[in-house]
Amino acid sequence: MKHQFSTQFDARYYEAGYPVTQTTGLVICEEEEAPSYRNNSGTSRLMKDSLSGSVATLCSVTVDLSPLKPFKRITKSESSYYYYVNYELGVTFGSELIFSLIHGGKVLKSAVAKYV
């Protein structure tokens, strides 16, 4: 199973060579039908208020996006820009959950999960 995400990095941060990682929370739900969210991040502005008692955070998954460099440069104005990237995070179910960075249908790197 995989899900597409996107994120952006400040130009100074990206160009200075800082790590380009992204952390995403994985939530679980005990109900028959999971609640809906407004965007693909799985969060809403009022995250704490919007989650029912049957929804809980299972883990946070951190992925290193550096294999996807160079990111797309987006210009906001003549002197202002940032870097943008789309990526897919995959999960393989088995005796353990295996998270991975996917691009072009290929697994590029594993991701690190920290369980709550």
Question: What distinguishing features does this structure have?
Answer:
116 residues; mainly beta; five-stranded antiparallel beta sheet; three-stranded antiparallel beta sheet; 2 helices
Characterization of this structure:
The structure is a single chain. The protein is mostly beta strands. The chain has one domain (2-115). It is 8% helix and 53% strand. The chain contains two helices and eight strands, in the order E-H-E-H-E-E-E-E-E-E. It has helices at 11-15, 47-50; strands spanning 2-10, 21-29, 55-64, 72-77, 80-92, 98-103, 106-110, 112-115. The strands form two sheets. Strands 1, 4, 5, 6 and 7 form a five-stranded antiparallel beta sheet that branches. The protein has a three-stranded antiparallel beta sheet with strand order 2-3-8, with no helix packed on it. Strand 5 and strand 6 form a beta hairpin. It is globular, with a radius of gyration of 16 Å. 3% of the residues are buried. The mean pLDDT is 82.
Structural class: mainly beta
Number of helices: 2
Strand content: over 45%
Helix share of residues?
Answer: under 10%
N→C terminal distance: 22 Å
Low-confidence stretches: none
Order of helices and strands: EHEHEEEEEE
Tally of structural domains: 1
**Main pleated sheet:** 5 strands, antiparallel
The coarse silhouette is globular
Mean pLDDT: 82
Rounded Rg: 16 Å
Number of strands: 8
